[in-house]
Every structure is written in C-alpha cells, then in structure tokens.
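Support request from a user on the community tier.

User writes: "When I paste my structure tokens into the form, the page sometimes reloads and wipes my input. The last time it worked, I copied everything first. Here is what I submitted, just in case something in the input itself triggers the reload:"
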C-alpha cells in the first residue's frame, strides 16, 4: 500500500521517427515536493527510453484517485495516520480508512435482475419465436417475436426476480446467509458484520491478511464481494472502507476538486466544501454494527483498526446510515 503525501508532474516534448510527442508523468514522495518532482522527472526519462525501445508509449498518467490499471498509488489527501493505517479523503469527498492487512469486505445488495437472467429470458423468447416461425412457415412471426422480446424481456426478468425473492429471501437475507454460511465453514474466523446503506461490510478480526492472498480472495468470492473493490485490493495491495457518509446521501453535492492535489487557487474552495460537508455529516453514520460470527479471538492490530473504524463510522449509534 502506497499513499504518498506529495505529488508533482513533469513533462517533456520530443520528436521521434517524424512524430511529435508530449510525455507527462506524475511523481510522488513521502519526503517533500522536491523529491516528488525528481521522481516525476525520473519517470519521464524512463518513458522516453521506453518509447525509443518499443516505438510506442502511453503519453500521460490518467488523473485517477485509485484502482487504475497503470499501477499508480492511491492519490488522495491524507487526513490522518495511525501507524500504517491511513485516513484519506476520496474523490467525491468522503473519508476512507486504508489498511495494508486488516481485512474489510463490502457486499452490495442486488435489487434488480442479473444480466444473466435477462439474457436467458431474451434468448428463450427468441427461441419460442423461432419455433413458431418454423411451425407456421412465416419469418414475419420471427421478426415480430424479436421485437416483442426486446420490449418484454425486462418486465419478465423483474417478475421472475420478484418470484425468486419470495422463495429464496430478499437480497439482504440472501447476502447475510452467504456470510453466515462462510462462518459455518470457517468457525475459527472472527467476523464482525455491519449494515451499510446498500449492503453489508465484514471486518475480519482474528488475524491479518495479504490483500492479494488466497484467504482474502476466497472470502471475497464466497460472499460475492463487490468486484470493483476486489480489483482495488489487488491493484493497491490494501483493504479499504468508507468511514463517512456519501455527500449526496446527506444533501451535499459531491466534491468537485476531488483528485489530489488540487490547484492552489482552489484550496479555499475545497476547505469551504469540507466544512459544509462535516456539518451535515455529523448527523449520520456510515454503517451500523449488527452482529458477529465465529470465534471471538481478536488480533491486536485488527482490534485497533476496529476501534478506529467504529469511531469514525459511528457504528454503535442509531443515526441514519448514509
């Protein structure tokens, strides 16, 4: 996990094999801005050599907060740090807890039919149209059936999803059952379960984990962890949890100057936004603790992270979660 305090950018213009190139690269450092600038210039030099060798090059680093495929570190403002646990402000303004080895997993509830179900329904209708067309020797019927399938696939999928929920439980019940089943299969694991606005969060307490390791990945798969979160863990080699409300859920517009660092002339505007956001956020929680499963043993580091997480999230209160 790398979350640098300082960022800089360097660029160079060059002509290679008759084409003009402008190459830009970010640099980062925990020491100071000068070290970040040196790193940026070093990366520009490396990119120039790569162009000469491979005859093609990505011309710039995309300005993303995290999860980029280009291997850039998490690019967010550091708000606080306790040992190797870092609190940052993400691109839309909420606070996030980042840890290299205390396992968090988020599960988002699915309130709509899956694309797989919709595909099955569509091709079933298409097949029925084809059979009718063959039986009646009329391809007009097949064409008409295709049009009808396009219009009613969504309706039939929603109806089937509703019927499924009656027999297998609501999305929340099914998600919690997956967590409970995993706990039954791993009784030596200590799982704390939190309710989030759109699902559940699991904090694993009995040991620390490698974000790219088999144990973490097995948990992610077993409880259907959000795929974007799983990718982030692999790319950034850390675990992460949002610990303050999403702005739009508490009546605040998202932060517009979210990718760090921001230009100097926008610092005051950003500070005003943060002050307004904090005033609104104090009346909300980010998640609510509901129960724990399995062994009650807690790793000391996981316990420290849990206390920090619960304090920021206000998870033991009855405030509305957002």
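"...and here is what came back when it finally went through:"
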């Amino acid at each position: 996990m790398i979350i640098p305090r300082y960022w800089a950018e360097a660029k160079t213009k060059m002509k290679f094999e008759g084409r003009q190139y402008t190459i830009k690269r970010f640099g980062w450092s925990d020491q100071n801005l000068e070290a970040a600038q040196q790193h940026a210039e070093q990366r520009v030099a490396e990119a120039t050599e790569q162009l000469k060798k491979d005859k093609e090059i990505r011309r710039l680093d995309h300005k993303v907060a995290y999860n980029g495929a280009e291997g850039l570190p998490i690019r967010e403002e550091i708000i606080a740090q306790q040992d190797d646990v870092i609190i940052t402000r993400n691109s839309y303004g909420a606070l996030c807890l980042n840890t290299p080895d205390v396992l968090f997993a988020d599960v988002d509830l699915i309130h709509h039919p899956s694309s797989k179900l919709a595909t099955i329904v569509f091709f079933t209708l298409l097949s029925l149209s084809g059979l009718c067309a063959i039986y009646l020797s009329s391809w007009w019927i097949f064409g008409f059936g295709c049009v009808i399938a396009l219009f009613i696939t969504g309706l039939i999928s929603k109806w089937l999803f509703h019927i499924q929920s009656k027999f297998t439980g609501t999305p929340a019940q099914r998600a919690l059952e997956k967590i409970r089943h995993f706990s039954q299969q791993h009784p030596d694991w200590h799982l704390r379960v939190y309710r989030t606005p759109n699902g559940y969060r699991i904090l694993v307490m009995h040991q620390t984990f490698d974000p790219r390791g088999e144990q973490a990945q097995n948990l992610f798969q077993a409880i259907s962890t959000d795929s974007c979160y799983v990718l982030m863990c692999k790319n950034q080699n850390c675990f992460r949890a949002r610990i303050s409300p999403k702005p739009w859920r508490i009546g605040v517009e998202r932060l517009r100057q979210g990718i760090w660092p921001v230009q100097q002339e926008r610092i005051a505007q950003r500070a005003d936004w943060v002050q307004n956001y904090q005033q609104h956020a104090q009346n909300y929680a980010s998640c609510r603790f509901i129960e724990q499963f399995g062994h009650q043993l807690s790793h000391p580091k996981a316990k420290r992270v849990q206390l920090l997480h619960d304090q920021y999230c206000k998870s033991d209160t009855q405030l509305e979660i957002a």
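Agent notes: The reload is a front-end session timeout and is unrelated to the input. The chain has a mean pLDDT of 87. The first strand starts at residue 6 and ends at 16. Escalated to web team.
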